[in-house]
Amino acid sequence: MGEAGAESGALLVHKQLPAVLGKCVENGARGVTGQRMTYETYFNVHLVSDSTGETLNAVMRAACAQFDNIAPLEHNYYLVRSPKQLERVLREIEAAPGVVLYTITDADLRNRLEERCREVGSPTLAVIDPAVNMLSRYLGLQSAHKVAGQYHLDAEYFARIETINFALQHDDGQHTEHLREADVVLVGVSRTSKTPTCVYLGNRGVKAANVPLVPGVDVPDILTGPGAPLVVGLKISPDRLVQIRRHRLLSLNETPDAAYADEDIVQQEITEANRLFARMKWPTIDVSRRSVEETAAAILNIIQEHER
């Protein structure tokens, strides 16, 4: 059922859903089956950018993560740089009123967007303005108002492309003879998110490689001998790894009871990996409940400490 927002006039849709994962409102109603019910609030979020929209998506998701039982309905508009393009966006906003987040540099387009949104009762937020204004006051400088200013094809951009290529070329123990060139080498048993973490680090300008720990196979000497690069061990709890591996097997239409996901075998793999980490005195990160982004952030901290 639809319900108008008390202050903004935003369209909020509350949908009653069974709490199938065990999460429910403390005083939630019970459905006809006796299941406790929870309410989820659906609302429109319009993300309007004159560039790629990455900043908007990151801010919106970080903000929405602070609220329980909400489901933002994303409407994405990228590369909006002309009045004609903006008019199409405004028609979409009028048809589905909601929150509007934007990163638009052109003053005329910004004013037009904000004016029309006020008319339909949709609140707006220029998400990078607070940061730009703060820097302007601190530095005593005016901003240059560059569209997609962070995406210049400069030396830093091409260096980042190279670090991503490095991660792909040195994935899963490939080309170990070049590992001394790495800023960091991730080591861990299978399914500890080594590859996506390396690619993410590559996008942050870090040369990252990874080497899997395979039962009965020694790690390359280059990681344990003189002049070894920085190595970070990725740890994980046995129950979490079993869960991930069984899900992987099911996605491949294979039986989840294979040795790859056997609890005793997984426990042995993890024990041997942890002994190796301790013996080599490598810094470690527990990835059991971490996202790739959180793991990468922890690794960046380790790299900074290592370079001091």
Beta-strand content bin: 15-25%
CATH architecture verdict of the largest domain = 3-Layer(aba) Sandwich
- The secondary structure category is alpha/beta
Overall pLDDT metric: 86
Low-confidence stretches: 1-37
Give a quick account of the main beta sheet: strands, pairing sense, barrel closure: 6 strands, mixed
Distance between the termini: 58 Å
Number of strands: 10
Tally of domains: 2
Shape call: globular
Summed up, the helix count is 9
Helix content, binned percent: 25-40%
N-to-C SSE string, H for helix and E for strand: EEEHEHEHEHHEHEEHHEH
- Briefly, what CATH class of the largest domain? Alpha Beta
The radius of gyration computed from the alpha-carbon positions, rounded to a whole number of angstroms, is: 25 Å
- What is the name of the CATH topology of the largest domain? Rossmann fold
Short summary:
The chain is α/β, with parallel strands linked by helices. The protein has 2 domains: 45-139, Rossmann fold (3-Layer(aba) Sandwich), CATH 3.40.50; 155-307, 3-Layer(aba) Sandwich (Rossmann fold). It contains 9 helices and 10 strands.
Structural features, described:
The protein folds into 2 domains: 45-139, Rossmann fold; 155-307, Rossmann fold (3-Layer(aba) Sandwich), CATH 3.40.50. It has 9 helices and 10 strands. Helix 1 links the parallel strand 3 and strand 4. The longest helix has 18 residues, at 263-280. The model is unreliable at 1-37 (pLDDT under 50). It has helices at residues 54-64, 83-95, 107-120, 129-139, 155-169, 194-203, 238-251, 263-280, 292-307; strands at residues 2-4, 11-18, 37-49, 70-77, 99-103, 124-126, 184-188, 208-212, 231-235, 284-286. The strands form 2 sheets. Strands 1, 2, 3, 4, 5 and 6 form a 6-stranded mixed sheet that branches. Helix 2 runs parallel beside helix 3, helix 5 (155-169) runs antiparallel to helix 6 (194-203) and helix 6 (194-203) packs across helix 9. With 308 residues, the protein is of the alpha/beta class.
